[in-house]
Specification:
- The chain has 229 residues and is mainly alpha-helical.
- Helices cover 63% and strands 0% of the residues.
- It has nine helices and no strands.
């Protein structure tokens, strides 16, 4: 089924993933360690995706966990350690806000994959996924918050919380729609795309960076660091 997906879909998604990685690297002031970690993780997931590692579904624990647990553990470690918090506080919140614009092409790709029968409708903006609103509003928050400096920290915090809620909503629905032991939705058209290359980059690379960007901005805004360092 995945081999029948038109070429433009993986090409657009691949470009979107690389743009996400680049924007985060830029937000980290082009730190070499950040680049190394991002590149190594992307390469590992590329190899595993090409090998069809995640399409094997009868393992315990599910291989799908390798997509999401390592980034989440790294994020937790950064927030839990002094060096990690120092790194977080040095990130450019302006660039990390602009990073959320990538949610627009991501949502378009999800819709096209639904049309190809590799994702359930509930994962698109025609279903339960309203994440595209975060992507559409991100340039406005960037412009009025950082360029014009018209938005208060409270408004910026509220936007990040709402957009974070939209992200959590689609992530939960995506996981519960995948053909895994704990699947709850979309049994007629499950979420199989993210088990295949290059769409495994979505839970492994794109979603963690979007999540982390929100958490970074919320921490910086709560500490009064409204503008970029």
């Amino acid at each position: 089924m995945m081999e029948d997906v038109p070429l433009f879909i993986p090409l657009i998604f691949g470009a979107t993933t690389l743009m996400t990685l680049f924007l985060f690297y830029k937000g980290a002031h082009k730190d070499k360690t950040t680049l190394l970690v991002l590149a190594l993780w992307w390469i590992v997931q590329t190899v595993l995706g090409l090998l069809g590692f995640y399409t094997v579904l009868d393992t315990t624990p599910p291989r799908f966990l390798l997509l999401i647990l390592p980034p989440l553990l790294l994020i937790a470690l950064l927030f839990a350690t002094p060096k990690g918090r120092t790194y977080i506080d040095g990130l450019d919140s302006k660039t990390l806000t602009l990073l959320h614009t990538i949610r627009i092409p991501v949502e378009l790709v999800l819709f096209w994959l639904f049309l190809e029968g590799t994702l359930p409708e509930l994962m698109t903006f025609e279903g339960r996924n309203f994440d595209i609103l975060a992507g559409l509003s991100a340039p406005l928050v960037y412009y009025f918050g950082f360029v014009k400096k018209k938005l208060s920290p409270a408004i910026m915090i509220l936007w990040n919380l709402i957009a974070l809620g939209l992200l959590i909503n689609i992530v939960v629905n995506a996981i519960l729609s995948a053909p895994l032991p704990f699947q709850q939705f979309a049994f007629d058209q499950p979420n199989i795309a993210v088990l295949h290359f290059p769409y495994n980059w979505l839970p492994a690379c794109v979603v963690p960076l979007v999540l982390f960007s929100h958490l970074v901005n919320l921490r910086q805004l709560s500490q009064g660091k409204y503008h970029s360092p």
